Amino acid sequence: MTEFKHSIAASLKESISSIYPSADISEKEIFEMLEYPPDDNMGDVAFPCFKLSRTLRSAPAKIAENIFAVISAALPECAETAQIVGGYINFFISDTFLQKNVLAKLASTGADFGRTEAGKGKTVVLDYSSPNVAKPFHIGHLGTTVIGHSLKLLHEYQGYSCVGMNHLGDWGTQFGKLIVAYRKWGCREDIEKGGIDKLVEIYVKFHEEAEKDPSLEDEARAEFTKLEHHDEENLALWRWFIDISLAEYKKTYDQLGITFDSYNGESFYVDKVPEQIQVLKDKNLLKIDDGASIVDLSEYNMPPCLILKRDGSTIYHSRDIAAAVYRHRTYNFEKCIYVTSAGQSLHFAQLFKVIELMGYDFADKLYHVPYGTVSINGSKLATRTGNVILLRDLFETAIEKVRAIMEEKNPNMQNKDEAAEAVGVGAIVFYYLSSNRIRDINFVMEDALDFNGNTGPYAQYTYARTCSILAKLSCDADAALPENTAKLDKAERDLIKTFSLFPEKTQEAVIGMEPSIVTRYILDLCGAFNRFYQSCPIAACEDADKKKIRIALTRGTRDILGKALELICIKHPEKI
Ligand code: ARG
Hints:
Largest sheet: 4 strands, parallel
Strand order of the largest sheet: 5-4-9-10
Number of helices: 21
Shape: globular
Structural class: alpha/beta
Distance between the termini: 33 Å
Bound molecules: arginine
Oligomer: single chain
């Protein structure tokens, strides 16, 4: 729709200048005033005259009439007609423009239809997923992982080069505890076999035993100090704990089709902290409070930011400061985006403020992208009590249910396992990314898996339907658009109009850092395609030109829908 809006804005600018030479309004301002009417009968794009009425001191309806008189005599080619309703001028896009411009462009670009070069030459660093080592993914990690990766793909679609960083929580006293626990109760083979669950088991045991014997805590601290001083044996254990954990995380990343460019975790930045401590000291920002080093932020209505512990060791905040500086030096980023739960909003507000006070000019390029909490079937997740829902169990349940449905509907299907995994996992991701990220979500499995609802499976089925229609058409599937344009049916028109919104929706998703804009677009697209499919025969269409247009519509849906699903981390098998 953007191009249509641009020509309408240009014509409006010309008409307005000719009638009201004193009106001080630019084409850009006019463009931004254009609206999408809530209903098709009111046109495809509307120009409200209310704002002009204030500067021109005339009634909106009168202004609309005057402009209409001029513009209707010389409508740009892309507009079929225009009409006035109240203080609005409504413009109807022409069938020719929809075919010659939108559909023809889509036919040549395919899935790149919404791609731009807006971010060319600029780098975006995205810090997401970032689990704390030796703890399995729980449902709370779904948000950071899929929002983060989706934002990465969306930025790449706008031409940015992106660096996906998994800022692993791989440093801290918990490693001292794990080392003690492993030496006392662990068994190498058990852990090699049982993976992260076994690590959790010995970690929990450590806490149980430490209740009875607090000296274990001292032992753990001592082991961590040894680790900080590069004790070979402890370092080897620590690396091994990380490897065991990563092997587990990678299973989940594979299911989601997610990869990272860097796994530099918190430990990577420990030796880069002293340089930043010096900057803090030089700027007179560091204060000692009860032995610990802090930055006082009371002037900014925030609690103090803890920088070093009493024993001088680094913490989450100081490692994040060093990480931000390192990333800026290494990547010279345009944006550095951190995706975490809203529970960490204060952490990032403090971090960004301290970096600004330190005098780093990239402070305004740091963005925290927070998201809400997830409850399941109405019950909040009690993470403290260990009563957590693991992501892999949630995925497994969904996959099993999908497999059962497929077994019943299509017992002879090939690749059943692969498809069941794509649809089961996709259902959860789609459901999760359906609402605005900041909203708290109540997860209901039945709703997520409803094949007839506004769900992932519905979208994936729609995609598979486009593939199977095209496969049946065999060589006709590549048919080019006809030379001449045709009068479009309403369902065809609506579908092309929906296509035309894809570029702006993907741009809005980047600006608002909001993947759910794409999710909702996918539902609109599926709705428009399925209405078209029900009312317009494709293979059986007798008019040869119309048939070619309908084939192009099916191909266009396949390309945009496939890309849109990919952009929100959802796999889309060609056959389900
Ligand atoms: N490991 C942290 C957690 O699980 C998230 C890290 C986010 N990234 C960062 N640079 N602080 O809560």
